[in-house]
Amino acid sequence: MKPVRKAIIPAAGLGTRFLPATKALAKEMLPIVDTPTIEYIVREAIASGIEDIVVVDGKSKRSIEDHFDSNPELENNLREKNKLELLKVVEETTDINMYFIRQSHPKGLGDAILTAKDFIGDEPFVVLLGDDLMQDEVPLTKQLIERYHETGESTLAVLEVPHDQVSEYGVIDPAAKVKEDGLYRVKSFVEKPQPEDAPSDLAIIGRYLLTPEIFEELEQTKPGKGGEIQLTDAIDSLNNRQHVYAHEFKGDRYDIGSKIGFLETNIEFGLKHPQTKDQLRAYIKELAAKL
Ligand code: UTP
């Protein structure tokens, strides 16, 4: 079994839910407290043992490349002023093997994955979407890699969501629970079903472990929902020739792809951050008393 060493982070979407902020700035650079969302994602990949990361980016995404590049002027300044903690934070993310590919037109998540085909080659790999931050004792990407060691097949992360929200997600039709600890064989995958048509409330969240055969399926996939090449459709076809499994995530998931989720996550992370937690708690109590 080949090891899982590579990750794709698709970041070429238009980010329309965050306009006007995303007119010139990548959505993935918006911060949760003081850290761009993409840095949390990259840290999860590294903590899971991933060695090489490719970011699929689009227009106005230079800031992502700059963020993971060294910045000698800033580093010297921090060193001279003896701000060594900050220097460590800044330098930590410049030693990662990061690569960047351009998706020239945002034709969908499936198309973004396909642009990284040559980078991945003939190996299993993971996909991490920046719209979801995950927290658990073992990082979710690592959980998927451990599942791959058991099954040798593609495995997606799913989460039970409220029934009236299933139309925002890809949803699985589970065939059978393979293990009591939440591993499912899957009959089919449905992109954004209406609640009355949804085969379950198990929604695909932004972490996938895929075998390289997915690229052959993506090449055959026609535009689906929203006129975009949907990764879910390609996974559904892959499931006809190889098993695709779903791993139920039991940790905390922060949906930062919507305005309200983004604000809630900033508050929750701010309530844990050593520099902001006390003042923020006091402020929230004061504010709540006025509401
Ligand atoms: P979303 O559906 O969240 O779209 O894409 P979006 O453009 O990022 O955001 P909104 O909905 O307009 O606000 C899911 C993931 O797929 C990537 C996005 O960057 C995001 O990580 N994506 C989507 C691409 O890389 N290319 C595409 O053509 C579409």
TrEMBL record:
Pfam families on file: NTP_transferase
Keyword Nucleus assigned: no
CDD domains recorded: UGPase_prokaryotic
Top-level taxon of the source organism: Bacteria
Family: Belongs to the UDPGP type 2 family.
TM stretches of this protein: none
UniProt keywords, alphabetically: Nucleotidyltransferase, Transferase
InterPro entries linked: GalU_uridylyltTrfase_bac/arc (IPR005771), NTP_transferase_dom (IPR005835), Nucleotide-diphossugar_trans (IPR029044)
Molecular function, one GO term: UTP:glucose-1-phosphate uridylyltransferase activity
UniProt xrefs under NCBIfam families: galU
One GO BP annotation of this record: UDP-alpha-D-glucose metabolic process
The protein's annotated pathway: Carbohydrate metabolism; nucleotide-sugar metabolism
Keyword Translocase: no
Boundaries of every Nucleotidyl transferase domain copy: 6-266
EC number: 2.7.7.9
Protein name: UTP--glucose-1-phosphate uridylyltransferase
Reaction(s) catalysed (UniProt annotation): alpha-D-glucose 1-phosphate + UTP + H(+) = UDP-alpha-D-glucose + diphosphate
